[in-house]
Design a protein that fits this description.
The structure holds two protein chains of two kinds. Chain A has twelve helices and no strands. By secondary structure, chain A is mainly alpha-helical. Chain A is globular. The relative contact order of chain A is 0.14. The longest helix of chain B has 18 residues. In chain B, a hairpin with a 2-residue loop joins strand 9 and strand 10. Chain B starts with 14 loop residues before the first helix and ends with a strand. In chain B, helix 2 crosses helix 13 and helix 3 packs antiparallel against helix 14. Classes of the chains: A mainly alpha, B alpha/beta. Chains A and B meet through helix 2, helix 3 and helix 11 of A and helix 1, helix 4, helix 11 and helix 12 of B.
Chain lengths: 315, 447
């Protein structure tokens, strides 16, 4: 379900293309540049295929969220059924079981805002410190962070569960939020980005002018880090939004379920003695679940440009 | 599945309370069974109801939340929180974990009959006989009651049952002029006729399901499992198992079973469009059919389960569950009060109204219940078929005290017969061996 990150590189300026020397001289009138790229049928077809591959599930989801429970089973998967039930499905999804879906949505938002927001904030602080300050033990920390990036979160879920159950934290929102606050990959990304995006001369200038480190961080560094922050925020947001295994083992109380677990419990409902099958609501619910993610990507696109620091200092 | 209007605040909503909680946890030292005022008698149940309190009930049954609300209305001092902690195996895993951790154990838990032995043998669920469950024996139909009892002890109260019947798609049967089979041999013949007439249609879908196989062996008079405390016998060479294996092998060899796993979308699709023409399963299925395959409304009918010998009257149960009271629960008397209300009290009526199939004889044989006509089944009074089936369930069936595990390895053993050259009887032998080995490892005396 993860959306793919859009390409980040937008060229800062168009320099006139330098004539290519060496292998062959270009024929006049057939110069290719960034703005006039060489067209390749093969590449276009290949990227087109990849695009279709990525979009078909989404199209399927949109089409099938307009069907009733019986329409789902009796009509073709890639075309609409005669009975258009899209708005009925949405209404049913939001009201089924006393509107539990809405509660799950708020739980998910809570986990994302506190968990992913906190993870991003910690990653920015840590990454900046590691990139711009000299202190003993930096190499050790680097090794630990790189090692932590390599450990999948799923592998840590069970040990975390045992630890939390000893502390009496299982079955509370903290059980989901606290592990989400740690994002080694986000820290690493922020570190690399801060090292590149913040010219050391700028910090020196701020120090000479007498700004405190805190003030320097908030007024000088943070704006320069914005594109990186947005990138990390998107990563942690997607990870928290789609988190399934951790809440699965931590939470038993449906009052605290995120959307992923809630939808799964709806899906499992059909598979039991005397249970009610609500595939149409599961599908509509899944669609409603990914809409905020897509919206977040579209809204944060414009912050996603590097090169804010270009021209701030003479290189 | 629960009532949002009655949320309890979460413990540990701040670091201070978390620390306090951690301290109290270490202070208790994990002894969960406080046998103070909870010695257990019918009077305790009365006292507990008067005193009130709050209960957490784990159930995946969609009819339970209403029962909980009604119970709260009848006993204003009691708060009941219904939690869907997963279905069947998922819930049992969660329950085992909670019991092992000594934390988060529910006051009442839904446990299917096949899994109850596992919890009762480990003393994880309380014996309810002293609270008054011993007097309820006559209320329940024999199959379910037999499933919750062990000697004099009663480890749960039956909340639903699944006397088996044959659901068949009348439209398909009429179209190809197939008679409703009265014996399993006729069933095989019908399977051949149907598949020949329409290569896309199958008599039923089966990719190997433990519950289904054991139920048919049960109906055939088989007793593969004998359980006496920790002495367990596992023997799939008895006549009942052989009868089942021989007949079902014909269906497998003739490629007459749709290779579709139960409960998948594809399965529901087949039930809806007539490519899966029959279904031999429990009396709880109507709700699933009505909601899962609404397009087939009016096509389906219910007939008695085909017999292994013409003229016999034998049946079996498929599925069905009980409510049990975990031994680690804090307020077992109150928990029992709710359990009895849901299983043998006013709760039954409300659940039957919402489509559950009861385990209580009185409700199963009440005129109103028997005379109910079901539009989905073309106006048929299907409860008559189920009630008849319930009274014919073959006696003395027992499940293993580790049936949950045994069922989990069914597909790696017996399941092979559906996809390879292995025969069913070879598969059953492998299942028997692996189940025995596991039993020995777990400290059972297995023969």
């Amino acid at each position: 379900m993860g959306a793919t990150a859009p390409a980040t590189a937008t060229p800062g300026e168009d320099r006139a293309p330098r004539p290519v020397t060496g292998l062959r001289t270009p024929r006049p009138g057939r110069r290719h540049s960034v703005n006039r790229p060489r067209r390749s049928v093969l590449l276009t077809v290949l990227t087109g295929l990849v695009l279709v591959y990525a979009l078909v599930p989404l199209v399927w989801l949109v089409i099938n969220s307009t069907k009733t429970q019986s329409g789902l089973l009796s009509s073709s998967g890639l075309w609409f059924d005669s009975d258009f039930a899209f708005f009925r499905n949405i209404a049913d999804t939001l009201t089924y079981n006393d509107g539990v879906f809405v509660r799950w949505l708020f739980n998910t938002l809570l986990y994302v805002v506190v968990g992913a927001g906190g993870a991003t904030f910690l990653a920015v602080l840590g990454g900046y410190a590691l990139a711009k300050f000299q202190f003993p033990g930096k190499r050790g920390i680097f090794a630990v962070v790189i090692g932590a990036v390599a450990v999948p979160g799923t592998a840590l879920a069970v040990p975390t569960f045992l630890m939390f159950s000893k502390m009496g934290l299982t079955d509370t929102p903290w059980a989901v939020i606290i592990p989400s606050l740690i994002s080694p990959f986000g820290l690493y990304l922020m570190w690399v980005f801060a090292a590149e995006a913040i010219p050391t001369e700028l910090l020196e200038a701020a120090r000479i002018d007498g700004a405190s480190e805190i003030r320097t961080f908030f007024t000088v560094s943070l704006p320069l880090l914005a594109p990186g922050i947005v990138t990390v925020l998107l990563f942690t947001m997607v990870a928290t939004w789609n988190n399934y295994f951790l809440p699965l083992i931590m939470l038993k109380n449906p009052d605290w379920y995120p959307l992923t677990l809630g939808l799964n419990s709806w899906n499992a409902q059909a598979q039991t003695n005397g249970g009610e099958a609500i595939f149409n609501l599961v599908i509509t619910g899944s669609l409603l679940t990914i809409v905020p993610l897509i919206a977040a990507f579209l809204l944060l696109q414009r912050y996603w440009q590097s090169g804010l620091a270009a021209g701030s200092v003479k290189e | 599945m629960y009532n949002t209007a009655r949320r309890r605040t979460v413990r540990g909503a701040g670091l201070a309370s978390v620390l306090a909680l951690a301290l109290t946890l270490t202070a208790c030292g994990g002894s969960s069974d406080d046998s103070g005022s909870d010695s257990g008698s019918a009077d305790d149940v009365k006292t507990a109801l008067e005193k009130g309190g709050s209960l957490t009930v784990w159930t995946w049954d969609s009819t339970m939340p209403k029962v909980a609300k009604d119970f709260e209305a009848a006993h204003p001092k009691v708060k009941v929180k219904v939690v869907n902690a997963g279905t069947s195996k998922e819930e049992y895993t969660a329950l085992q974990n909670a019991i092992a951790a000594g934390k988060g154990v529910p006051d009442v838990a839904q446990i299917e009959y096949f899994a109850l032995g596992q919890f009762s043998l480990a003393k994880s669920v309380a014996d309810l006989s002293k609270y008054g469950a011993d007097k309820l024996g006559d209320s329940f139909s024999p199959g379910p009651w037999n499933a919750v009892k062990s000697g004099e002890a009663v480890y749960g109260l039956p909340v639903d049952s699944g006397p088996m019947a044959l659901y068949y798609n009348k439209k398909v049967f009429d179209k190809y002029k197939i008679a409703v089979p009265a014996t399993w041999d006729e069933y095989v013949t019908a399977a051949e006729k149907l598949h020949k007439a329409d290569p896309k249609a199958y008599i039923t879908a089966d990719t190997g399901e433990a519950g289904f196989a054991t139920s048919l062996i049960w109906q055939a008079g088989g007793h593969p499992y004998t359980v006496d405390g920790t002495n367990v016998g596992i023997d799939f060479t008895d006549p009942g198992s052989a009868t089942f294996a021989k007949t079902w092998q014909k269906l497998i060899d003739g490629k007459l079973l749709a290779p579709v796993t139960s409960w998948t979308d594809e399965w529901f699709k087949g039930l809806a469009d007539g490519t899966i023409a029959t279904l031999a399963t429990g009396a709880w299925m109507p709700t699933n059919l009505t909601t899962g395959a609404p397009a087939a409304a009016g096509d389906w009918r219910v007939a008695p389960l085909p017999q292994w010998k013409a003229g016999e009257k034998s049946s079996a149960e498929s599925g069905g569950s009980s409510l049990a009271v975990p031994a680690a629960g804090k307020n077992k008397a109150l928990a029992y009060a709710f359990t009895e209300y849901a299983a043998a009290g006013a709760g039954v009526k409300s659940r039957v109204k919402d489509g559950a199939y009861p385990a209580t004889t009185a409700d199963m044989t009440s005129k109103e219940f028997l005379d109910t006509k079901f539009d989905y089944f073309g106006g048929q009074e299907i409860n008559k078929v189920f009630a008849q089936s319930a009274s014919e369930v073959a006696p003395d069936w027992s499940y293993l005290p580790f049936q949950v595990y045994a069922n989990s390895i069914f597909n790696d053993t017996v399941g092979k017969a559906y996809v390879s050259g292995t025969t069913l009887s070879e598969g059953l032998a492998a299942w028997q061996k692996q189940s025995r080995d596991y039993g020995s490892e777990q400290g059972f005396t297995v023969k």
